[in-house]
Here is the input.
Amino acid sequence: MPRNNDEIITTSELRQLAYNEKMAELGEISAGVVHELNAPLSVIISASQMIMREEGVPLFVQEMICRINSEAQRLSQLAKGLLNFSSHDNSITEVDLNYTIDFILNFLNIEVAKRGIVVLKQLDHTLPFILMDANLLRQVLLNIIMNALQAMEEQGGKLLVESAMSANDKVSFVITDNGPGIPTDSIDRIFDRYFTTKKSGEGTGLGLFVTKNLLESIGGNISVANRSGGGTSFTVTIPIQ
Ligand SMILES: Nc1ncnc2c1ncn2[C@@H]1O[C@H](COP(=O)(O)OP(=O)(O)OP(=O)(O)O)[C@@H](O)[C@H]1O
Ligand SMILES: [Mg+2]
Here is the structure.
């Protein structure tokens, strides 16, 4: 039976939507490809380590090998992270908000670089762990940050990511961009299912709908405000337990 926008969505539908959304964001990268990347990367890592142990290697070669080794390790970490990202594992673990922010920013490195965006972070490094599904937090951060990046296609984009304690039992993070902001006539609708201002094929209008529902399913919340100087701020609050 067809349902209207106001009807409650079930948790399994929500997870399915969230998963579809996540896979769409991951684009062409499939878990299989990532898996295949790990084999050649481990060869590069161990071969470079063997060369580094050799005697009499000229200094400049040592430096370059060291570089190759650390870049290969970085790629390998990223590939492992992507595998975790696309897993169906929804188990509750101790999640580090700041680490997850860094993970998502690292994941979106190319999107940031191709738009020439400057990323600023003001993270509270004394935050406690949150007991939650790590994939849910990644999904939420990815949706909000990706929207911010997409809003800043013009030169001079700045993204500010802040984390802080909010009351005694909650943590919060704020994602601020200096894009065009959200027009007042649509700001109340951005969390609606299928609301998008993007061209067909570029946006489904599910990102913020899924994000809000996921957060509410764990007792968290999300709010939005336009900044007076232009741009938008999204504030997310999540209970620690
Ligand atoms: N940081 C932002 N700055 C300006 N507008 C925004 C921002 N974030 C969201 N929006 C507006 O909210 C709309 C809904 O966002 P939402 O993430 O739900 O869908 P989408 O980004 O259009 O599509 P999808 O996330 O499925 O790719 C966007 O189309 C855009 O108009
Ligand atoms: Mg979106």
In short: Residues 14-25+91-239 form a domain with the Heat Shock Protein 90 fold (CATH 3.30.565.10). The radius of gyration is 20 Å. The first helix runs from residue 11 to 26. The pocket of adenosine-5'-triphosphate (ligand 1) is lined by residues 143, 147-148, 151, 177, 179, 182, 190, 195-198, 203-209, 232 (CB under 6 Å).
